[in-house]
Automatic annotation (TrEMBL):
InterPro entries linked: DUF1007
One family name in Pfam for this protein: DUF1007
The organism's place on the tree of life at top rank: Bacteria
Signal peptide: 1-19
Protein name (Swiss-Prot/TrEMBL): Polyphosphate kinase
Key words of the record: Signal
Protein backbone atom coordinates (compact mmCIF):
# COMPACT_ATOMS: atom_id res chain seq x y z
CA UNK A 1 0.00 0.00 0.00
CA UNK A 2 1.52 3.29 -1.09
CA UNK A 3 0.32 6.45 0.61
CA UNK A 4 2.10 8.83 2.99
CA UNK A 5 0.10 8.26 6.17
CA UNK A 6 0.99 4.59 6.35
CA UNK A 7 4.70 5.25 6.58
CA UNK A 8 4.35 8.15 8.99
CA UNK A 9 2.05 6.31 11.37
CA UNK A 10 4.02 3.11 11.43
CA UNK A 11 7.41 4.74 11.85
CA UNK A 12 6.01 6.50 14.90
CA UNK A 13 5.29 3.12 16.52
CA UNK A 14 7.71 0.86 14.68
CA UNK A 15 9.56 -0.62 17.63
CA UNK A 16 6.98 -3.21 18.77
CA UNK A 17 6.22 -4.36 15.23
CA UNK A 18 7.80 -7.16 13.25
CA UNK A 19 9.33 -6.22 9.94
CA UNK A 20 6.77 -7.63 7.51
CA UNK A 21 3.87 -7.40 7.27
CA UNK A 22 3.08 -4.21 9.17
CA UNK A 23 -0.58 -3.90 8.16
CA UNK A 24 -3.23 -6.63 7.91
CA UNK A 25 -6.23 -6.07 5.67
CA UNK A 26 -9.29 -8.31 5.38
CA UNK A 27 -10.42 -7.88 1.79
CA UNK A 28 -13.79 -8.21 0.09
CA UNK A 29 -14.84 -7.85 -3.54
CA UNK A 30 -17.97 -7.09 -5.50
CA UNK A 31 -17.55 -8.13 -9.12
CA UNK A 32 -19.88 -6.16 -11.40
CA UNK A 33 -20.80 -7.80 -14.70
CA UNK A 34 -22.91 -6.35 -17.52
CA UNK A 35 -25.67 -8.06 -19.54
CA UNK A 36 -23.11 -9.35 -22.05
CA UNK A 37 -21.11 -11.10 -19.33
CA UNK A 38 -18.28 -8.57 -19.31
CA UNK A 39 -16.64 -7.36 -16.13
CA UNK A 40 -17.07 -3.59 -15.93
CA UNK A 41 -16.21 -2.65 -12.32
CA UNK A 42 -14.74 -3.96 -9.09
CA UNK A 43 -15.80 -2.69 -5.69
CA UNK A 44 -13.01 -3.41 -3.25
CA UNK A 45 -13.43 -3.43 0.53
CA UNK A 46 -10.51 -3.14 2.94
CA UNK A 47 -11.03 -3.80 6.66
CA UNK A 48 -7.89 -2.71 8.50
CA UNK A 49 -6.62 -4.50 11.59
CA UNK A 50 -7.39 -2.93 14.96
CA UNK A 51 -3.83 -1.83 15.71
CA UNK A 52 -3.35 -0.01 12.44
CA UNK A 53 -6.82 1.53 12.78
CA UNK A 54 -5.77 2.80 16.22
CA UNK A 55 -2.60 4.32 14.78
CA UNK A 56 -4.56 6.15 12.10
CA UNK A 57 -7.19 7.53 14.47
CA UNK A 58 -4.56 8.61 17.01
CA UNK A 59 -2.46 10.26 14.30
CA UNK A 60 -5.52 12.28 13.29
CA UNK A 61 -6.58 13.13 16.84
CA UNK A 62 -9.81 11.17 16.59
CA UNK A 63 -11.59 9.36 19.43
CA UNK A 64 -10.01 11.54 22.16
CA UNK A 65 -12.05 9.80 24.86
CA UNK A 66 -10.77 6.37 23.71
CA UNK A 67 -14.21 4.78 23.81
CA UNK A 68 -13.77 3.13 20.42
CA UNK A 69 -16.67 5.06 18.95
CA UNK A 70 -16.28 7.75 16.30
CA UNK A 71 -18.77 10.47 15.55
CA UNK A 72 -20.17 10.84 12.05
CA UNK A 73 -17.93 13.85 11.54
CA UNK A 74 -14.85 11.89 12.63
CA UNK A 75 -15.67 9.03 10.27
CA UNK A 76 -16.26 11.54 7.47
CA UNK A 77 -12.82 13.02 8.08
CA UNK A 78 -11.28 9.60 7.42
CA UNK A 79 -12.95 9.19 4.05
CA UNK A 80 -10.30 8.91 1.37
CA UNK A 81 -7.34 8.74 3.76
CA UNK A 82 -6.10 5.61 1.98
CA UNK A 83 -6.86 6.82 -1.54
CA UNK A 84 -3.94 9.26 -1.86
CA UNK A 85 -2.10 6.99 -4.26
CA UNK A 86 1.23 7.88 -5.80
CA UNK A 87 1.54 7.88 -9.58
CA UNK A 88 1.76 4.38 -11.02
CA UNK A 89 0.38 2.64 -7.91
CA UNK A 90 -1.97 -0.17 -8.91
CA UNK A 91 -4.04 -0.07 -5.74
CA UNK A 92 -2.61 -3.41 -4.60
CA UNK A 93 -5.18 -5.07 -6.86
CA UNK A 94 -4.32 -6.92 -10.06
CA UNK A 95 -6.90 -8.11 -12.59
CA UNK A 96 -5.66 -10.79 -14.97
CA UNK A 97 -7.06 -12.10 -18.25
CA UNK A 98 -5.14 -15.09 -19.57
CA UNK A 99 -2.20 -14.10 -17.40
CA UNK A 100 -2.10 -10.54 -18.78
CA UNK A 101 -2.92 -7.57 -16.57
CA UNK A 102 -6.11 -5.64 -17.35
CA UNK A 103 -5.99 -1.90 -16.64
CA UNK A 104 -8.19 -0.50 -13.89
CA UNK A 105 -9.16 3.09 -13.20
CA UNK A 106 -8.20 4.98 -10.09
CA UNK A 107 -10.47 4.80 -7.04
CA UNK A 108 -14.01 6.17 -7.33
CA UNK A 109 -17.09 6.34 -5.10
CA UNK A 110 -15.04 6.02 -1.90
CA UNK A 111 -16.83 5.09 1.33
CA UNK A 112 -15.56 4.75 4.90
CA UNK A 113 -17.02 3.37 8.11
CA UNK A 114 -15.73 2.45 11.55
CA UNK A 115 -16.88 -0.67 13.38
CA UNK A 116 -15.50 -2.76 16.25
CA UNK A 117 -12.34 -0.67 16.42
CA UNK A 118 -11.56 -1.12 12.72
CA UNK A 119 -11.52 1.29 9.80
CA UNK A 120 -13.36 -0.21 6.83
CA UNK A 121 -13.15 1.46 3.45
CA UNK A 122 -14.44 0.63 0.00
CA UNK A 123 -13.82 2.03 -3.45
CA UNK A 124 -14.96 1.37 -6.99
CA UNK A 125 -12.59 0.77 -9.88
CA UNK A 126 -13.70 0.71 -13.51
CA UNK A 127 -12.27 -1.77 -15.98
CA UNK A 128 -10.66 0.10 -18.84
CA UNK A 129 -12.22 -0.48 -22.28
CA UNK A 130 -12.58 -2.93 -23.84
CA UNK A 131 -14.16 -4.71 -20.87
CA UNK A 132 -13.12 -8.39 -20.85
CA UNK A 133 -15.46 -11.36 -20.55
CA UNK A 134 -15.79 -12.21 -16.87
CA UNK A 135 -15.32 -15.95 -17.37
CA UNK A 136 -11.81 -17.00 -16.42
CA UNK A 137 -10.68 -13.67 -14.97
CA UNK A 138 -8.44 -13.72 -11.91
CA UNK A 139 -8.29 -10.98 -9.25
CA UNK A 140 -5.26 -10.84 -6.96
CA UNK A 141 -5.11 -8.37 -4.05
CA UNK A 142 -1.54 -8.06 -2.82
CA UNK A 143 1.34 -5.76 -1.95
CA UNK A 144 4.45 -7.05 -3.76
CA UNK A 145 6.68 -6.10 -0.81
CA UNK A 146 4.38 -7.83 1.72
CA UNK A 147 4.48 -4.67 3.83
CA UNK A 148 0.71 -4.96 3.81
CA UNK A 149 -0.85 -8.43 4.02
CA UNK A 150 -4.18 -8.76 2.21
CA UNK A 151 -6.40 -11.77 2.82
CA UNK A 152 -9.74 -12.35 1.11
CA UNK A 153 -11.88 -13.03 4.16
CA UNK A 154 -14.77 -10.65 3.46
CA UNK A 155 -17.62 -11.40 1.06
CA UNK A 156 -16.95 -11.91 -2.64
CA UNK A 157 -20.12 -11.34 -4.64
CA UNK A 158 -21.14 -11.15 -8.29
CA UNK A 159 -23.47 -8.32 -9.29
CA UNK A 160 -25.38 -8.40 -12.58
CA UNK A 161 -25.05 -12.07 -13.50
CA UNK A 162 -26.71 -15.26 -12.30
CA UNK A 163 -24.36 -17.47 -14.30
CA UNK A 164 -21.03 -16.30 -12.83
CA UNK A 165 -19.50 -17.33 -9.53
CA UNK A 166 -16.31 -16.58 -7.64
CA UNK A 167 -13.89 -18.99 -6.00
CA UNK A 168 -11.14 -17.93 -3.60
CA UNK A 169 -7.91 -19.84 -4.12
CA UNK A 170 -5.35 -19.72 -1.34
CA UNK A 171 -1.64 -19.45 -2.01
CA UNK A 172 0.46 -22.59 -2.19
CA UNK A 173 2.49 -22.36 1.00
CA UNK A 174 5.56 -24.44 0.22
CA UNK A 175 8.58 -24.82 2.47
CA UNK A 176 10.54 -22.08 0.70
CA UNK A 177 7.77 -19.51 1.21
CA UNK A 178 7.41 -20.44 4.86
CA UNK A 179 11.15 -19.99 5.32
CA UNK A 180 11.04 -16.58 3.66
CA UNK A 181 8.17 -15.54 5.92
CA UNK A 182 10.22 -16.48 8.95
CA UNK A 183 13.21 -14.55 7.63
CA UNK A 184 11.07 -11.46 7.10
CA UNK A 185 9.52 -11.63 10.55
CA UNK A 186 12.96 -11.89 12.13
CA UNK A 187 14.18 -8.61 10.63
CA UNK A 188 14.43 -5.43 12.59
CA UNK A 189 11.35 -3.30 11.93
CA UNK A 190 13.41 -0.58 10.25
CA UNK A 191 15.29 -2.92 7.90
CA UNK A 192 14.33 -3.02 4.23
CA UNK A 193 14.19 -6.71 3.18
CA UNK A 194 15.86 -5.88 -0.15
CA UNK A 195 18.88 -4.54 1.74
CA UNK A 196 19.57 -8.02 3.11
CA UNK A 197 18.83 -9.84 -0.13
CA UNK A 198 15.30 -11.02 0.60
CA UNK A 199 12.95 -11.06 -2.40
CA UNK A 200 9.46 -9.59 -2.71
CA UNK A 201 7.03 -12.37 -1.86
CA UNK A 202 3.68 -10.58 -1.80
CA UNK A 203 2.50 -12.01 -5.11
CA UNK A 204 3.47 -15.56 -4.18
CA UNK A 205 1.40 -15.28 -0.98
CA UNK A 206 -1.60 -13.64 -2.63
CA UNK A 207 -5.10 -15.08 -2.58
CA UNK A 208 -6.63 -15.46 -6.04
CA UNK A 209 -10.28 -14.84 -6.80
CA UNK A 210 -11.19 -16.85 -9.89
CA UNK A 211 -14.36 -15.98 -11.82
CA UNK A 212 -16.15 -18.69 -13.78
CA UNK A 213 -19.35 -18.29 -15.77
CA UNK A 214 -21.68 -20.88 -17.26
CA UNK A 215 -22.44 -20.65 -20.97
CA UNK A 216 -25.75 -18.88 -21.59
Amino acid sequence: MKYPLVTAALLACATPLGAHPHIFVDTGLEVIVDAEGRLTHLRITWAYDEFYSLLVTEDRGLDPDYDGVLTQAEVASLNGFDMQWIEGFNGDTVLLEGGEEVALSGPQDVETRFADGRIITSHLRAVEDPAPAADGLVIKPYDPTYYTAYEVTQKVTIQGSDTCRARVKMSDMNADLRALQQDLSALDANTDPSDVGLPEIGEALANEVVITCDAS
